[in-house]
Structure formats: structure tokens, C-alpha cells
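Ticket #279: bound-state structure for biotin.
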Amino acid sequence: MSKTVSQNHNREYTENTEHTLDAEELSSGLNTEFIGRTLFVFDEIDSTNTKAKQDFQSPDGSVFIAETQTAGKGRLGREWNSEKGSGIYMSILLKPNISPEKAPLLTLIAGLAVCRIMRRRNFSASIKWPNDIVTDGKKVCGILTEMSAENGKINYIVCGIGINVNNTDFNDTLKVKATSLFIESGTKQCRKTIFREILHEFEKCYMHFLKNGIEPFLPEYKKYCITLNSEINVTAENQSLRATAVDIDSDGSLIVQYGGVLRKISSGEVSVRGIYGYV
Ligand code: BTN
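RESOLUTION: The complex was predicted; output attached.
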């Protein structure tokens, strides 16, 4: 049996308890089998992904969540803005028995789970391939999946999810491409409820994925994927190519049409932007 571990470090600031992340409360309403059943809560940490990787010996499904991150990591070496007490910054430690090539598919699965929850809450959420959830043309959630593997076997995967829930503090660069659920709805959202809903949805999708692969998810993923059928710039190693996104492959890569030929783009090192803006 897994257990709930509470690590509330240095709680120095005061906030309405209803809006702080408390390990006991977060886990008491959790209806998952194993995801988040071991839970580490931090007031401040460098990055929940880094912590999950350091603590990889924790049980499968352990979740690391923080009120703020001082070195939150995004894809392609970018920073993740982690405004204190406003967003959800969490990492899920997973030890699946799948081949390492399949690990990027977990980003798609996590993105779909988040997208479903946001839509259920009446946000017009879509997916910008591979890992951004956008609403109203701006990013509200990003996912960073990291893996350790040896000899063709996965040691662990860390799936980091950052959601702008009640965030308002975006700098000028971010303001044009990022938003939060609060900004979009005008109403403060309860991070605890969203946290529980996402873990539950993620677990459901993850278990189904382990059993049945990505195929059953692709129609829905494609339906919500706003990258498809749009003109995009694909940037890698300072080179940019303009293409049309036409499909998602069963290995999770994006199929683009470029100069009359089809090419597969894998998520690893590329940035995909709409030609007229962020999406
Ligand atoms: C991206 O869109 O570039 C991915 C952003 C991922 C951010 C989350 S926040 C929780 C976890 N810890 C990190 O350092 N990064 C991820």
C-alpha cells in the first residue's frame, strides 16, 4: 500500500487556507488508485521535475507539487514562470513497462487529460502540439516530460505539468502568449479541485494507454489539436521552415507538408508556432 507523505516546508506566508496547498487536504479528496497517493508538497523548490528525478526511488505515481518554483523548467531550455500560490506546478513520477520510444506519448496523454478537465469546466481549451494547452489563443498549461532509460528499459519518467490557474503576473513578453484560468473566466479557481480532477483523469488515461496504446486517444487528440490544418513555422537549431501541419502520427510526431512532401517532426528539439502568432 502506498502512503501519503506530507512535506510542508517553511510555510512563512499567510493565505486563506482554502487557497493554500495542504498535503492532507489534497489527498483526502483524491479518488485515484496510485497517482498522487504518495504526495510531496513544497512551499518553494527549484523545480518539481528536478526534485522528482532526484527522488526517483519514490513509489510509482508519486506526485511532487509546489507553491512556487525558483527554477521552473519549460521545454527547449526555457523557464517556467511559477507565480507563488497561484498556479499548479506538479510532477508525476512514473515507472511504466513500455519502450523508451513511447515515452513522448505520455506528453500527449497528459495534455489530453488536462484539456478534458478544462473543457469540462467550460473553458474552450485546445491543444497546441505537442504539449501546450491553450485557451483563447494563449497558453494556459505546459507539459515537460523527462525520462531516464538504460539498455532499452525505462528507469523512470517524470511528467511535469504547469497550469496557470489564478496567475496574473506575466511580464510583457509572456502577456502576449500566456493567460490563466482566472484571467479567462474572471473567477478565482480552486487549485485543489483542479489538481484532484487532473490526477484522476490522468490516471484513467494512463492506465488505458498502457493497456491499449495511443490509438484510441488519437481521434480526440486530433479533434482538439489546433495545430492541425494550420500554417506553421517549425524551428530547430536556428533554422525555420514554413509548413502545413496535416496529421499526428501514431508515435506522437507531427506530420507536416513542406514543398509538396510529407515530413515527420518529433517533439524533442523543435518549436512550432503559428505563422500569425503563438498558435
Ligand atoms: C513547457 O511548456 O515548456 C513545459 C512547461 C512545464 C512546466 C512544469 S511546472 C511543473 C514542472 N516542473 C518544472 O520545472 N517544469 C514542469
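RESOLUTION NOTES: Residues 47-49, 69, 72-75, 78, 80, 89-91, 131-132, 142-144, 160-162 surround biotin (CB under 6 Å).
TICKET STATUS: resolved
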